[in-house]
């Protein structure tokens, strides 16, 4: 497939997700394509599990950080409210479409250009998940992705169910 065909295909896949009300759909497709093991259906499943329709928002973690829970992650609130609070030990809040919570992943997204920018948060999340899949296989990787040292297999199974649903959407659109 040449570059023009690939761009058209990416746009078609993103359009299926956009019809489902998904935000950042083309970015999700593009970042999944950069990996070896995070397929398009899995990418949408993970983001859907983490946020409502891929929105670039803060999570609802029970931490004293003053990040505006459930609101848009912006450069201003990231740099002026969230990050200073996190650095003062007031906890880490999920951020962006993949809900990056671990401080090192947030910092990695900041180094790429800013955790408040969806492409950087998504790229860091998918790079990490790709690495975990290469080590553990898909189900355990998803469990570790969410649970770290306490793998969350319930989470993994929920994402795998979502992956099947996304695959069917793409099949129905003649894209899988």
List the main descriptive attributes of the protein structure presented here:
single chain; 176 residues; 62% helix; globular
CA gyration radius, whole angstroms:
16 Å
Question: How many extended strands?
Answer: 0
Strand content: under 5%
Query: Judging from the principal axes of the Cα atoms, what is the shape?
Result: globular
Name the poorly predicted regions.
Answer: none
- Terminus-to-terminus distance: 15 Å
| Structural class based on helices, strands and sheet pairing | mainly alpha
**Total of DSSP H or I helical runs spanning 4+ residues:** 8
How much helicity do the residues have?
55-70%
Average pLDDT over all residues: 96
SSE pattern, N- to C-terminal: HHHHHHHH
Major sheet size, sense and barrel closure: none
Structural write-up:
The protein is mostly helical. The protein is about 60% helix and about 0% strand. It contains 8 helices and no strands. The model has no long low-confidence stretch (mean pLDDT about 95).
Annotate the secondary structure layout.
Layout: H1 3-19, H2 25-33, H3 40-50, H4 75-87, H5 103-112, H6 118-136, H7 138-147, H8 153-172
């Amino acid at each position: 497939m040449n570059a023009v065909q690939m761009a058209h295909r990416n746009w078609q896949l993103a359009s299926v997700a956009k019809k489902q009300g998904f935000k950042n759909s083309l970015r999700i497709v593009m970042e999944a394509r950069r990996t070896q093991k995070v397929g398009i259906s899995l990418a949408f499943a993970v983001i859907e599990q983490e946020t409502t329709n891929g929105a670039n928002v803060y999570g609802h973690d029970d931490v004293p950080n003053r990040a505006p829970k459930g609101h848009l992650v912006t450069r201003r609130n990231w740099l002026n409210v969230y990050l200073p609070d996190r650095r003062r030990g007031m906890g880490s809040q999920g951020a962006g479409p993949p809900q990056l919570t671990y401080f090192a992943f947030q910092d990695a997204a900041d180094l790429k250009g800013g955790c408040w920018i969806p492409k950087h948060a998504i790229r860091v999340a998918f790079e990490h998940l790709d690495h975990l899949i290469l080590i553990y296989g898909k189900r355990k990787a998803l469990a570790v992705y969410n649970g770290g040292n306490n793998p969350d297999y319930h989470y993994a199974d929920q994402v795998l169910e979502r992956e099947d649903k996304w695959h069917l959407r793409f099949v129905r659109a003649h894209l899988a």
